[in-house]
Amino acid sequence: MVRRQRNARGQYGPLSRTEKRRRRRIRAGELRAKRPRLLAFASHGRGLGQLLPIERRRKAPAIPAFAFLPFHFLRAFVRRQTHLAWENVALRHQIDLLERRAGFRGRRTPLRRWDRLFWIVLSWLWSHWRKALFIARPETVLGWHRELARLLWGWKSRGRLGRPPIPAHLIHLIRRLSKENPLWGAPRIQSELWLLGHKVSEWAVNKYMVRPSKGLRSQSWRAFLENNRKAIATCDFFTVTTAAFQKLQAFVVMSLDRRRILHVAATRWTAGGWVAKEIAKADLPSHGIRFLIRDNDTRFQNALATELEIERVANIRTRYRSPWQNGLCERVIESIRRECTDHLFIVNARHLSQVLREFAAYYNETRTHLSLDRNAPIPRSREPGHGRLVATRVLGGLHHRYRNAA
Fold first, then answer.
1. C-beta of residue 112 within 8 angstroms of C-beta of residue 97
2. Dihedral through CA 71, CA 73, CA 77, CA 79, nearest 10?
3. Options 3.30.420.10, 3.40.50.2000, 3.40.50.720, 3.90.550.10; which CATH number does 229-372 get?
């Protein structure tokens, strides 16, 4: 691989044999490296002179430089001292830049932020700054000035664009009202906020309100269930293993209103219309149930549909392989397993039915739920904090029911 280095002309490329031989002699100490002369004064008849690198000056001036000395000497007496002072400052700064370029490998003169700021300030203070500028074009300095003006006014106007900002809590309130009431528009939300003591324009409400994902506005599933949960019940089966390793089928019916268990039963065989008989025992119409949600289990036979038609209860089936559509019943079954059947040895179906009925009474009357404001499905009244605590054992001491005695 050919190593790219600078040759004698300062260009990148492969070194010739003569250049390689000369560099070896320099490293050996036989020759002394030559330093290129970078600066020279070349007067062209304007200003005190123009600083140019010798490498870029190809043609020598036709008139000697000392021929313009009398002209510069007379002009120095005519001009004012402030003009000469600014010109000396400008030329001295450019000399410093060119001396800095001598130790810089690049071809362009390295300019820093302070150098640009110097010429911007000098253009403000001295009107003839263009005549003393040789390291850059006047348009470049004007571009620096425009960039500085943009940064300055951007810093002054930060956070002040457009209309006055709306407080964060008011934006949160607008989004909350629009989410909770998808049928409301911007004028309705603005009126509600005005009645709550918040002054906001309709344009701001229209900007920050959350719109429904679809074109048609409708109530959410939560609102639909809140309006109809008192008339909806759900049912499902789960398996329990006895002490003799037999499989028993447990059946549970639950109301979506406060998750109250309506009926529990257990059997070894579910044939012969057993499910329809248990649905009849649950007496769904007396609890105000008009809809029953179930899955596509084959144990739900035609007798169940006939019984539901007699009781005038709609039979609603979930989709195939979609247990989440009957999620509340699945959670109740998980609670029964975790808090009851996993800790007991079940003897037979009769024993399991007794255990499930006792746990269902404890579940409905005593067990607290976070989703029910830390209360039971059948609400309990809060007792005073004084008195003797009395505990009642449930399921042989697996759970307890507490109350304050006078």
1. no
2. 60
3. 3.30.420.10
Tokens read off for 360:
């269902």
Torsion of CA 241, 245, 249, 252, to 10 degrees: -20
Q: Are strands 39-42 and 50-53 parallel, antiparallel or unpaired?
A: antiparallel
CA nearest neighbour of 301 among 268, 267, 271: 271
Return phi, psi of residue 253, to 5°. -120, 130
- pTM given for the model: 0.51
DSSP tag of 384: P
340-374 tens-digit pLDDT: 999 999 999 999 999 999 999 999 999 999 888 88
The number of beta carbons lying within 10 Å of the beta carbon of residue 161 is 7
> Residue 70 corresponds to which amino acid?
P
Highest mean pLDDT among 7-11, 34-38, 113-117, 236-240: 236-240
Q: Where are the domains of the chain?
A: 62-155, 186-218, 229-372
